[in-house]
Amino acid sequence: MSDAFEKDLDAQIKAALTGQDREILEATQELGWFELGFKQFGGKLGWVTWVVMLVQTAMFIAAVWCAIRFFGATETMPALKWGFSSTVLMLGALQMKLSLMPQIQADRVIREVKRLQLMVASKHD
Fold first, then answer.
1. Using CA atoms, how far apart are residues 1 and 52, in angstroms rounded to an integer?
2. Helices 101-124 and 3-16 meet at what angle, rounded to 10?
3. What is the dihedral of CA 18, 21, 22, 28, to 10 degrees?
4. What is the Cα–Cα distance from 99 to 68, expressed in whole angstroms?
5. How many CB atoms lie within 10 A of CB 49?
6. Angle, vertex CA 34, rays to CA 1 and CA 22, nearest 5
7. Taking each helix axis from N to C terminus, what angle separates 46-72 and 76-98, rounded to the nearest 10 degrees?
8. Among the residues of 17-100, which ranges form H helices?
9. Which site among 58, 60, 69, 102 is 20 to 30 Å from 86 CA-CA?
10. Residues 16-68: tens digit of each pLDDT
11. Which of 26, 30, 31 shows the shortest CA–CA distance to 13?
């Protein structure tokens, strides 16, 4: 779909809507990447995002601390201990952060379904 056609379609939808429908359309506007990410901190499951990010941050800080100890180690066994710990913590932190991506994608899909419902409703009125 061309960008000009999409803008024209959006303008037609806005012109056809009134009151509550217009508010719903504004609530379903497409958000940018950072807006989608920050939106995860609110709502019913916002506390889960806060917990995940706090644990992920703690794991990252611990991984950096272990990495510093790894690079400072002069013997093999302590270097392996700190290097392995750093790697596991860094991968765990990454996995926790990536666990939020499906929710972001689900929010995008739900937002688009609401827009489609409004388009269908405006065609039937």
1. 37
2. 60
3. -170
4. 27
5. 19
6. 55
7. 160
8. 19-27, 33-39, 46-72, 76-98
9. 102
10. 666 666 666 666 566 676 777 777 788 788 888 899 999 999 999 999 999 99
11. 26
